[in-house]
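Thought: the user wants the 3D structure for the chain below. I'll pass the sequence to the structure tool as-is, report back what it returns, then summarize two notable features.
Action: structure_tool
Action Input:
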Amino acid sequence: MPVLNAGATLRSSVQSVLNQDYEEIIEIILSIGPSRDTTSAVSVELESTDKRVKIIENPSGRTASALNAAASIATGDYLVRVDAQSKLDKTYIQQAIKTIQKKKAANVGGIQKAEGASVLERSIASAMTSKFGVGNSRFHYGGDEGPVDTVYLGVYDASIFHKLGGFDESLKRNQDYELNIRLRKAGYTVWFDPNLIVRYRPRSTFQALFKQYFQYGQWKRSVIKLHPSSIRLRQLVPPLLILGIFGGILVSILESIWGLLIPFMYMTAVLLSTFISKECNGWSRCFLFFVFPTMHIAWGLGFLFGPLEWISRSKATDKEPLAIRPYEKT
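Observation:
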């Protein structure tokens, strides 16, 4: 579990692991980044309540380095990734181990079930489970089980994870998607199981939501730079939307009012998607009208203009093993 500024949610997240039906959980490794809240105190408290809870430091604060550091000392046959803002359903691990063994997959995952507490969080959760909001990835809203490009979080075969070198630590976001690309290229299967439910707490402010989705777009472009064949149509829609909106506004100023056709069509789509949403009502529906554009515009701007200064470093990962300590199965 990578943990950073998660003092408010860490207890419930760890408790969801301790409450699992699966009885062979060997250890719960918390990889703690430099936090500005009560994260450190909460993690020490959790360590004292159950001997399986272990704390390691993650000075960089980055998710990939946190996961690799934890995986390097893990002793089990399978690695279960959990985020500090999420809760696992009680049967999650048991079902995941059953699926990964049955399907002989390298990684299995299920549904990221976004659930908000405040009005805005509920609006964001609704957008994150909408095809209009996030595209056609099954882990957002469900679907038939089967092989997929990627899954949320993931339960990994430890030996395969280490064989491929773990996560690319040059990636701040999208490190899971990039690893799944390498898994599939190596001939392994990434499997979606809709019976695996992870409850996720979305961001609580528009500013945090914008930052999150800007980084998603920025680091998606980075992954595509590393793996050009991995590009999907849904990933091109937000940047094309940005170009269409700004291009349309420019045309309307310089040439014709018809330049506003694309911005008008997009806002009409936002209005219709907001109106037909079954999860929102009242103020949450009003917020949803602004949540959709926030996510789409942030993602598109990140994809088009997010800095890529890291690329010269990450290219080395095609030739050199990633920074993960040797795996010794016990």
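Final Answer: Structure generated. The longest helix spans residues 283-305. Strands lie at 2-3, 28-32, 53-57, 78-80, 86-88, 107-114, 146-147, 155-157, 190-200.
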